[in-house]
Amino acid sequence: MGFTAFGGPLAIIAQIQRDLVDKQKLITEEEFKKSLALIKTLPGPTAAQVLTFIAYRLGGFWTAFFSLSFFILPSALMMVGLAIYYDKFRANAEILNLLEGMQAGAFVLIVMALYSLTKGNFTQNRFWVLFVISLLVLGPLKIFEPFVIIGAGVFSLFLNFKPRPLKLSSYISLDLFLICLKAGGLAFGTGFAILPLLQKDFVEVQHWVTKDQFMDALSFGQLTPGPISVTVTFVGYRLAGWLGALVATVGIFLPGFFNMTTWFPRAYNWFSRQVWVKSFSVGATAAIAAGIVIVLLSLLETIRGPQLIIPFLLLGLSFRRNIPSWALVVISGLSWWLVSHAILEKSLL
Known about the structure:
By secondary structure, this protein is mostly helical.
């Protein structure tokens, strides 16, 4: 799966079900669906945690450790390779046009992920109320996002209850690790839900990468197999080489791995019976959706309007033809490269 799981978290989860549940019958379909529903309410990359949980149920800690490691390793190494040659890519005008088109494709994929994340809550009034409130406090007020996510979840939960009594210095390495650890531990939903936290810290607070570089990293994350969260591997390598890549990758996946190999398997049966889990998830998802909208508005500054036409057309077509996300990014890049060439040749004539 580390080499073949393209298409983002939903596609990866579908492949996990096909390979491990339907073909190998390592767990029952009922167990898979129940665990997936519960893991969706937890922070961290969903697909990676589902895989870790299944592996832990089958063989304990080390089975989970090696399963997750081999799942992440191919895409992490590919991201390091892309980071090594990134400056040469950006210096080449031909490749720059390709990257700009790919950025537009990645932008459209975030829009699609936002829809997938929120579509189950469209009919709930509390979701839209908390979404608007979160949008306001994350945008103009710039409240620390983890506080907003947890606060929205708790507030949504409260509505269900009646009142009752009751560097490379070591500094840079540590900073990078803590930022990735925070993102992996506080972003609920799919890997795309981590983007607001990463974009704010990497681009706006630390200024480690520009918006263009962040979008390029996201594009590369879509082109490679495995979890989208390996986007941090690219940034880590750019900052501090192989050690930075390792620190960032471990940081982003450690919270989910810890949850899946410690308390969650033991609390699995109890957790699945709790009605409050779904309510908390509604509030948290509303805040996450607001954060993703803020990121989209910010990233629009780096993308020219015409670049979005082709990927949005492809997105519409994908509902009929099921275009993989990596293919959408590649086709968007190639299309913009061809358009740029046509414009250049016309101007020369």
